[in-house]
Amino acid sequence: MQFKLTMEQEIIQKQAREFAQRELEPIAAQVDRDGKIPPDMTEKLVKAGFLGMLIPKQYGGSEAGVLNWVLVMEQLSYPACHCLEAMSNNIVGRAIALLGTEEQKERYLPLLAKGQVIGSYAFTEPGTGSDPKSLVTTARLEGDSWVINGIKRFHTGGHLDGPAIIFANVDDKTTAFLVDKNVEGYSCSKPFELMVGKGLETVDTRFDDLRVPKGNLFGEVGGGFNILFSITAEGRVMLAASATALAQAALDEAVKYAKQRTRRGVPIASMQAIQWLLAEMACRIEPARWATYRIAWLTDQGQDTRMESAMLKLFASRVAKEVADMGIQVHGSYGLTKDFKIERIYRQAKMFELTEGSSEVQRSIAAGSLLMR
Amino acid sequence: MNVIVCIKQVPVSGTVSIDPRTGALKRENVPGVINPEDLCALEEALLLKQKHGSRVTALSMGPPQAEGALREALAMGADRAVLLCDRAFAGSDTLVTSYVLAQAIRKLGGFDLILCGKQSADGNTAQVGPELAERLGLPQVTSVQRLEVYQERLEAERAVESGLQWVEARLPALITVTRRINTPRQPSVEAILVACREKEVITWKTDDLGIDTSSMRFLESPTRMAAAWVPEPRKREGEMLAGPTKEAVRTLLERLRQRQVI
Amino acid sequence: MTSSSDMKGNWEGRGMVWVFAEQSDGELARVSLEILGRGQELAKALNGQVWAILLGSGVTGLSEELIYRGADKVLLGDGPTLGDYDTSIYCRAVTDAALEHKPDILLMGATDIGRDLAPRVAARLGTGLTADCVALDIEQETGLLLQTKRGYSGNMILTFVCPDHRPQMATVRQGVLQPCPRDASRRGDIVSLSICPGQENLRLRILKKAKRAGQDSSPQEARVVVACGRGIGKLENFRKLEELAQSLGAAVVATKEITDLGWLPEGHMVGQTGITVKPELYIACGISGAIQHTSGMWGSGIIVAINKDPKAEIFKIADYGIVGDVNEVIGALIEELDGLKTGWGGCT
């Protein structure tokens, strides 16, 4: 058993780190404030090869695997800069590659790999949170099309051109559809103003008799949950990687601050109270990171990681929140000012306990799997 | 046109420490990166490849983990990568390093241009380039920040103490570059995967380089490290200079001169 | 290529220290005189002599100056082919002389020429070279030259020795060592060197030269940095600060309040939301020392703080502090530095 990154993984990780330092770090504070992402960001991500990592080679991707992708996501998340919506192409792309028809693969995968469209997925509705059974969006077959009616809430990237995976009930059977946005019947609201800053754009999307070609049925009627599990499994590992990165950023900021800030002539890093905070922060990050790598590796081996990824997200999201909180404490009141990175890390950290399946859902999933044995 | 680029894998800044038991530097299992100026040299070679269709060979002398640096060079676009790796090379100083590199370059065959970074981030000697040029009998142009290569000559812009200099040299030649010369490209994930999974890094040992028992003495480094220590993080002296302005200023300048900062 | 280790046993000249004396435009390089000064001390410790090796065209007159500055003998190469530095000719001249006289130690300035010449000489002679030394000493028991330098991005101090190969070579940067005081009563021999022609293919043709316009060093590369804070007051005072920076060859940076006024571009703002600098010397003028600023410069080598408030935070991280009117202090600094410049006495 080797607890070491391979040469290939190290190089990929290093390139991602350099990309983050060069392209994301300098603009992170600005993006948080005004949401203005450089228009060529997607192009840069494509050029670096980050968008096609989970898409098969024959469709223009690099098939780099989930572990390599997780290494990249971890590095790209470190600057706490929300401008990585295009990275969801990997999740959507992987789902299509595993569960789509040949026609769907050919139609969407090359475009996703090259960043020419941005993929997204939406399950949550105004009345429905993580509870899958209460979907209100419906779809019915009318001739050659499916007609979809409903609203999706907190649809991240729902306003960007590209395929959206929409979950709707067909006669009470949860089903997934690939919806091309910006067609008649598809409309978006303005983005929500979120705690996490302006960079992350999440909207309500509304379907009024939205017609979707028959060939856009994704999976089978009633097969929605399979699709959902596939997406969320990757989503959880990705979020765990991002959560770990944010926690690491919080720790690094806190250490830097503690060494510089003096009180009565000595750096506060020499005070036990601060030292204990830093230790508590560090000891949470180690297990979060290695559990993330392991579950990513398991996924690459083809194993079903539904339970593991739920436990992972539950744990890692809490790590991000707690470590960010401790990071602010180390900074004292300066942590409340926008001059310091820790302020933005704190606001972004809370998201992980809620998005893509709240911690409550993760607990239920984990418990369910445990008790089934 | 054949271009050879010498690269060195150096420890990530701040990761080298001293083994408390032996007093020697701990260099094993320390994360490594391609020396930043060597990366610029490699990028310059790749730009020449784009412009003139030249063949680029990346060459490195180092421990087994230096293979990572060469794989990165392949991912960036080098056509060939050669690692000179042998226990006998460990602990070599610049004279021996230049000897080994020269042997390898002679074995690689014809070349028109050798590119190196000016100096490494760990040794900071800026010696290997010129020593290599001497061994191979080549003209050298150091501290280059712009390069134009023609059929049998090159023109280079050098940064010197007094300002800038433009020089012309005949090919074949050896150039050392600084970071001002270009911004190295980033290899894509696809390129990295291909470089790691499909390409070959050629490894040569003493035998392959024609270094036999009779020439082993050329692997003995003239210089060796006698002592290494981490300077104590200097506690700020915090000396308040009292007295009338002129006096305080004179004392200050004296202190600064003593500490050799002005 | 002859390896000096082949001649290990035959290499006499123990205690002979050589200094390569650089010159340009008829003046000796300051660094060469500094090394000569130390060379004299090293030679004394070895019961030997220090020789200078001087190459150029029309430089015979400088030989005496070298003797006044501590050389016991000068090896002089004066001829039209040596007018401009040429790698091949200079390298050949130095190595031929070294093979003939077999010095124990050969030192050069870590200048453009030194960095070009020293490694070629070392490779040609097959000996060791340590570049950019911060100290040179003689080890008592062995008589070996201890060559000390900074390594690993300055995080470590390393000492090297060259036990079996000769000459032991090292280069030193300007400002590290001290020259001897000039003693016009000193006498010494001046010996002519025979100069071989250089190799044509090694020659570089200089197409164009341009002098550096002024200090355009980016703040993050500068060795010395002068920083401006709110305490400076008016724009005309800032001009004085710029003058101070110029006489120190320093880069100018500022706190956010100053760049907000537009006196300097944002890229010169040092602090939490700006750039981080780590110069050898950081002079903070009229800066209070709030952490938003200090987080960008606290790693500097030596920090000097000038502020009228004795309780200012900046004094807690400064090596030297002056409490007073910052503009008065700047004025006094400029005056004193001008005075220092004229005190050098005839060498660059």
> What integer is the average pLDDT of chain C?
88
**How many beta-strand runs of chain A?**
10
Number of E strands of chain C? 17
Which fold name fills CATH's third level, the topology of the largest domain in chain C? Rossmann fold
Provide the helix percentage of chain C: 25-40%
Largest sheet of chain C: 9 strands, mixed
Domain tally of chain C: 2
Tell me about this structure:
The complex is a heterotrimer of chains A (about 375), B (about 260) and C (about 350). Chain A contains eleven helices and ten strands. With about 375 residues, chain A is of the alpha+beta class. Chain A has three domains: about 110 residues, Orthogonal Bundle (Butyryl-Coa Dehydrogenase, subunit A, domain 1), CATH 1.10.540.10; about 100 residues, Butyryl-CoA Dehydrogenase, subunit A, domain 2 (Beta Barrel); about 150 residues, Butyryl-CoA Dehydrogenase, subunit A, domain 3. In chain A, strand 2 and strand 3 form a beta hairpin. Chain B is of the alpha/beta class and about 260 residues long. In chain B, strand 3 and strand 4 form a beta hairpin. The N and C termini of chain B lie far apart (about 45 Å). The mean pLDDT of chain B is about 90. With about 350 residues, chain C is an alpha/beta fold. Chain C has two domains: about 200 residues, Rossmann fold (3-Layer(aba) Sandwich), CATH 3.40.50; about 120 residues, Rossmann fold, CATH 3.40.50.1220. Helices cover about 25% and strands about 25% of the residues of chain C. In chain C, helix 3 packs across helix 4. Classes of the chains: A alpha+beta (about 375), B alpha/beta (about 260), C alpha/beta (about 350).
